[in-house]
Amino acid sequence: MNRRQLLLNGTASAAFLTAAAVFWRSGRISEARAETFAVIKTDAEWKQMLSAEQYSVLRHEATERPWTSPLLEEHRKGTFACAGCELPLYASETKFESGTGWPSFWESLPQSIGTREDSTLGMVRTECHCSRCGGHLGHIFDDGPPPTGKRHCINGLSLSFKPA
User: Fold this and answer.
1) Does CATH place domain 38-163 in 2.170.150.20?
2) pLDDT, mean of residues 113-139
């Protein structure tokens, strides 16, 4: 095999793997969106009401860059709600500084979030989403503080803050 064949084969393999990943990921999102939620909007309606970045996170499970959310420094008493449907999700008393670059909470409000297994990125994680509209919030890890030991690592773009 010469260098040209090696490069062509490598390029073809990379293109195939990229296409497979996109197909697999889109199937996973479709499967997740097959759940029934109280708030249902068309894709066009979500795009109209959310910023492009919020749409990407809430509707397509993207992740915002760490240390970019203004809510990371939000320390007032109040409630963090879903940016998609305004369902109250987290009480400010459960927020803590995790040092990860995303707003973190040790517990959600009762029945405010749903979870499912996320095996993207070569690991198994617990993805969490709004129980009313299905908007992607972030992930839950087992390295949080007492009393739960959980860390809800949440995209600030998926939240709004309502002061007390």
Assistant:
1) yes
2) 93
